[in-house]
């Protein structure tokens, strides 16, 4: 059986924006983002991992990543994060 695929969400501590991605190696991918090896997030560092979920295959992970990038998916994602991080100040999003 092959390993999991992950959908992950990073938050920029610089501008508060979210970044959604997917990978089969979560630890390496987070390191890549943190060390500036990803052009999409290099100017938004420092970053923090705020959410991730595992999937049994790549196609499911990519489908979920695409959903989180839709308008409805962004609302769902922000609510999930908000529910998990109740200590965030009002108006954070």
TrEMBL record:
It comes from the Bacteria. InterPro entries: GIY-YIG_endonuc, GIY-YIG_endonuc_sf, UPF0213_domain. Residues 3-78 form the GIY-YIG domain. Belongs to the UPF0213 family. This is GIY-YIG nuclease family protein. It comes from Candidatus Segetimicrobium genomatis.
